[in-house]
Write a structure and sequence with these properties.
It comes from Brassica carinata (Ethiopian mustard). It catalyses: L-seryl-[protein] + ATP = O-phospho-L-seryl-[protein] + ADP + H(+); L-threonyl-[protein] + ATP = O-phospho-L-threonyl-[protein] + ADP + H(+). The protein is α+β, with helices and mostly antiparallel strands. Helices cover about 25% and strands about 20% of the residues. Strands 20-19-27-23-28-25-26-24 form an eight-stranded mixed beta sheet. The chain has a five-stranded antiparallel beta sheet with strand order 29-30-31-33-32, sandwiched between helices. A four-stranded antiparallel beta sheet has the order 1-4-5-6, with helices on one face. It is globular.
Length: about 850
């Protein structure tokens, strides 16, 4: 007899207590089959397990109190943020389920029943080494593996999503198998059988899914689309920038026709559900449970093709649909009755349509293009390799081209045939150019002349009268207008005035000022292929100047919240600094709404790209890691003591440490830095800026920052470099990196913290000393932390008796707050989890 869900949970809890093992790594749950059924049978078992687990968990909804009572009795930690079971069953679930699978191993399902899923093994029989087995990975991916064939993966849940899409899951069409991986909705909220809606990535005429877009289908008919992904955002969703993309959402190209999802901060818990009503809900975890962040579709205009061909939808207007200029409704009666699905048709035929066989001189005047601003572009775009200058000509020269648009992340997009699913936005969007007959443009021009001619006559007469009146006054030269660059330098001088004597003033005007078009050319129009990474305030691109010099260009995102003040702050601060362990600023650019900083190019990118990538960790051997630690310390010492200004960085972290060809570290990103004057040792701010996990307690909770605030961040970096793990990474017993390092130190096992890829007995003493220094730097109270000069002395001095560290911050005495909780305010933080405020270099 198959046990009830509550009995299964109670039994699993008992089993877990017996199988719990201490380990430095998060362990997985292994499900083994002692029998060896065929592959197809195993896959069918998994599918049935997936379906029946849904039903079982639904039954728990009215037995919540009983389940929680069992959980408390077994002293299991409730409150796990994310349920790995969710991957298996394809839905959001309670945190009680997560406690069963996230931190232990040893559950064996052995009895393969024809009536249901395998039962929990009651006899603790080990899994045979040559058996086919199932493993639940740390990220929640359930894998079916065949140990008889070198661990071949026969099936995995991340490649077969149900109705939920989680980080590292896969969507798209797999080039190897031809399988189209989509989400499938439930039939209803209480019936988990297959529903009518699916969602997935499609590329249409983009040949290799380079620029996918997300679609929802009802019975294979599209009902919503996101617009193409340009490497940063879905360009058809401009109004959700602050709700989703600022949290660091990203699509990762798996180069196999499929994509997976990630977020900038792995500690954040997100997932997407395709609900039975055909809507995608993005949910994130808070202390109160799962919250809905974004819903797609969100307005009536999001409905696919709502206004038909050549119709534009605007949810802020009434009626919502209108025809493109030069077009009229196909059926006026239906259009007036608000049935817009048949769309619009041209009032005048295009030149190509009128006389396809007539030469360009005899077929009438050439067609023109009507510019529509802030648009969601139509479906079925074709990608072209043309640049921004050649894109219009390529469309103009092709009679079948009905429209074009250009996005820096995607490039040139062309359309042929009817234009369907267009939407007009109030905020950001894409400029779309639609081909219309020259007569439509001419009519528009005649109307403009008729309206403006009388006005122009009045203006001329008035101007003549004013000219006569002004002859009595002496002519005075008009003052010259400040250009963007002149305004920038004027603001720089305001920021630096009074802070230094005239002899020490930096000649800011000697800093090169780049033209935007030069940087656009250097980075291939900021193409995704040139993108080096995504920072807290915008993407960074690799570029090559005309002389061959390689550069890194940080393009500040308008959505990031970093404006002119932060840019000037970084320019003012970094232009005064020269040190081998600080990145060099080459220049900047301010044109219109564009804000760009140009740095020396660092070929090895950032430190975190090596530390936290299992494939690259081995490149950083212990000697290299120790040199990086020492270099960071020397760069920080220069900021705190040796430069003519005393600078507190306030955002020191692994991603802000860049590496050159020789893997020498350079501190970067001074947008949040503060300059201390005279004998000033600490300062206070009402709003906290920085990055979660690196901020000191006095700064995070009270707004006080000083040298010791940077030392705390330095200590976190110490422990990350030693261990090769992020501070947010959860170790055994759900400990973060600081707590785990403290536990090992108290247990006399400090060297167990070291990354196995670099540990060697000959480095044991040096590693132990670095762990000790790292723990000294993350002490709870600022006075207990050493300054940077002392840290360097401890690193470089042999046979030194170092102080014993005390318990680090954020373990027991205090909890870590978020500067502006999303539970208290709907305002989102930026990608790097920073709350922005006006900061200046002084």
């Amino acid at each position: 007899m198959i046990p009830s869900p509550v009995e299964i949970i109670a039994t699993v809890v008992e089993k877990l207590k017996g199988f719990a093992k201490s380990s430095r790594d998060l362990v997985s749950c292994n499900f083994g089959f002692h029998e060896n059924p065929s592959r197809q049978n195993l896959i069918e078992i998994l599918k049935r397990l997936q379906r029946e687990a849904l039903s079982d968990l639904l039954k728990l909804s009215d037995r919540q109190e009983e389940v929680e009572r069992i959980m408390r009795r077994q002293r299991l930690m409730s409150g796990s943020l994310f349920s790995a079971v969710a991957i298996l069953v394809g839905a959001q679930f309670r945190d009680i389920a997560a406690a069963l699978v996230t931190s232990y191993q040893g559950m064996n399902f052995t009895e393969v029943s024809e009536f249901g899923p395998p039962l929990l093994n009651q006899h603790d029989v080990p899994v045979a080494p040559n058996a086919t087995w199932v493993q639940l990975m740390d990220n929640g991916n359930l894998r079916l593996q065949d140990n008889r064939n070198n661990g071949e993966i026969l099936w995995e849940s991340f490649k077969h999503p149900y109705n939920s899409f989680l980080p590292r899951m896969t969507l798209g069409t797999d080039n190897r198998t031809g399988e189209n991986l989509k989400l499938t909705s439930w039939r209803s909220y209480v019936d988990p059988s297959t529903g009518n809606y699916t969602a997935g990535l499609a590329s249409f005429t983009f040949p290799e899914l380079t620029f996918p877009e997300l679609l929802i289908w009802k019975n294979s008919i599209p009902i919503w689309r996101s617009g193409p992904w340009n490497g940063q955002v879905f360009i058809g969703l401009p109004d959700v920038d602050s709700l989703l993309f600022l949290d660091g959402f990203n699509l990762i190209n798996d180069n196999q026709g499929t994509f997976s999802m990630s977020f900038a901060n792995d500690s954040f818990m997100y997932h997407f559900n395709l609900d039975p009503d055909g809507a995608i809900y993005q949910r994130d975890w808070s202390a109160r449970g799962w919250r809905i962040g974004v819903r797609f579709p969100s307005t009536d205009c999001d409905a696919f093709g709502r206004c038909g061909p050549y119709g534009i939808c605007n949810s802020k207007e009434d009626p919502q649909c209108k025809c493109v200029k030069g077009f009229v409704p196909r059926n006026n009666t239906e259009w007036n009755a608000r049935n817009w699905s048949k769309g619009c048709v041209r009032k005048a035929l295009l030149r190509c349509e009128r006389q396809r066989n007539v030469s360009s001189n005899g077929g009438g005047k050439k067609d023109g293009f009507l510019k529509l601003q802030k648009m969601k572009v139509p479906i079925n775009a074709e990608q072209s390799l043309a640049n921004v200058q050649a894109c219009p000509k390529q469309c103009s020269d092709n009679c079948s081209c009905t429209a074009y648009a250009y996005d820096r992340g995607i490039g040139c997009m062309l359309w042929s045939g009817d234009l369907v699913d267009m939407q007009s936005f109030l905020g950001s969007g894409i400029d779309l150019y639609i081909r219309v007959a020259h007569s439509e443009l001419k009519t528009h021009s005649k109307l403009a002349i008729m309206v403006t001619a009388p006005v122009l006559g009045i203006v001329i007469v008035s101007a003549f009268c004013i000219l006569l009146a002004c002859r009595r006054f002496k002519k005075r030269p008009a003052p010259e207008k400040d250009t963007s660059a002149e305004l920038m330098f004027k603001r720089m001088e305001e920021l630096t005035s009074g802070n230094e004597s005239a002899s020490n003033q930096v000649k800011l005007k000697e800093l090169p000022l780049f033209e935007f078009k030069v940087l656009a050319t250097a980075t291939n129009d900021f193409s995704p292929g040139n993108k080096l990474g995504q920072g807290g305030f915008g993407p960074v691109y690799k570029g090559t100047l005309p002389g061959g010099q390689e550069i890194a260009v940080k393009r500040l995102s308008r959505a990031s919240g970093q404006g002119l003040e932060e840019l000037l702050n970084e320019v003012v601060v970094i232009s005064k600094l020269q040190h081998r362990n600080l990145v060099k600023l080459l220049g900047c650019c301010i044109e219109g709404e564009e804000r760009l900083l140009v740095y020396e190019y660092m070929p090895k990118k950032s430190l975190d790209a090596y530390l936290f990538d299992p494939l690259k960790q081995n490149i950083l051997d212990w000697k290299t890691r120790f040199n990086i630690i020492e270099g960071i310390c020397r760069g920080l010492l220069y900021l705190h003591r040796d430069s003519r200004l005393k600078i507190i960085h306030r955002d020191l972290k692994a991603s802000n440490i860049l590496l050159n060809d020789n893997l020498n570290p350079k501190i970067s990103d001074f947008g949040l830095a503060r300059v201390f004057l005279g004998n000033e040792d600490e300062a206070n701010t009402r709003r906290v800026v920085g990055t979660y996990g690196y901020m000191s307690p006095e700064y995070a909770m009270e707004g006080f920052f000083s040298e010791k605030s940077d030392v705390f961040s330095l200590g976190v970096i110490f422990l990350e470099i030693i261990s090769g793990r992020k501070n947010s990474h959860k170790e055994e017993n759900n400990l973060n990196l600081l707590a785990y390092a403290w536990k090992l130190w108290n247990d006399g096992e400090a060297t167990s913290l070291a990354d196995p890829a670099v540990f060697d007995d000959c480095f044991e003493k040096e590693i132990t000393k670095c762990v000790q220094i790292g723990l000294l730097c993350v002490q709870e109270f600022a006075n207990d932390r050493p300054n940077v000069s002392t840290v360097i002395w401890m690193l470089t001095t042999e046979n030194t008796d170092l102080p014993e560290p005390k318990q680090p911050a954020f373990i027991a005495r205090r909890g870590f707050p978020i500067a502006e909780s999303s539970d208290q305010s709907s305002q989102k933080v930026s990608i790097n989890d920073v709350s922005l405020t006006a900061v200046t270099g002084r």
